[in-house]
Design brief:
Bound molecules: 2'-deoxyadenosine-5'-diphosphate
Distance between the termini: 14 Å
Structural class: alpha/beta
Number of strands: 7
Radius of gyration: 16 Å
Strand content: 15-25%
Length: 174
């Protein structure tokens, strides 16, 4: 059986910007596979210690990378994570960094139950463009794209853009 070549997409950005919502939608429309790194780590208990300050387990990055290696080399995966320098650069054909206005992000994270330092730090992460800078350092600038993720219209437009990009890539590589 001849398998079609498919691209790998990294969907990144501060928690709450809408990665999961967009990633699942694009996966559904393209047939690409959606992988949420947080869920993958939880399922496989891919942790290495516990962060007392943030009250959460610490990701075992090497084991996460090992776990994904095979499907990434097959292609056709959308990876959702709020970080991007743990993955091998060669994995991804394109990187999308979602961006959300501070006040909207604050509201979304608050309704997710975040408060205090966790809420503040995440909103600051967005203000300081931390993930965007991480992405620009880890990947070639030409493949890193910022997408506004404030409104349902943005979601619709971003979905459209990603679906079109993926379809075009598949056409060009098969
Ligand atoms: P993430 O996976 O980045 O943490 P999410 O997909 O869980 O984010 O979305 C966080 C919340 O924001 C969720 O209630 C859905 C909502 N949301 C996502 N994208 C949005 C958009 N473009 N406009 C309005 N709300 C959005």
């Amino acid at each position: 059986m001849i398998m079609k070549k498919k691209p790998n997409i990294l969907l990144t950005g501060t928690p709450g910007v809408g990665k999961t919502t967009l990633g699942k939608e694009v996966a559904q429309r393209t047939g690409l596979k959606y992988v949420n790194i947080g869920e993958l780590a939880e399922e496989g208990q891919l942790y290495d210690g516990f962060d007392e300050e943030y009250n959460c387990p610490v990701l075992d990055e090497d084991r996460v990378v090992d776990e994904l290696e095979e499907q990434m080399s097959e292609g056709g995966v959308i990876v959702d994570y709020h970080g991007c320098d743990l993955f091998p650069e060669r994995w991804f054909h394109i990187v999308f960094v979602l961006r959300t206005d501070n006040t909207r992000l604050y509201t979304r994270l608050e309704s997710r139950g975040y408060s205090g330092k966790k809420l503040q730090d995440n909103v600051q992460c967005e203000i300081f463009q931390t993930i965007l800078e991480e992405a620009l350092e880890a990947y070639q600038e030409e493949i890193v794209h910022q997408l506004p993720s404030n409104t349902p219209e943005d979601l619709e437009q971003n979905t459209e853009q990603m679906v079109q990009w993926a379809e075009q890539w598949i056409k060009e590589h098969n």
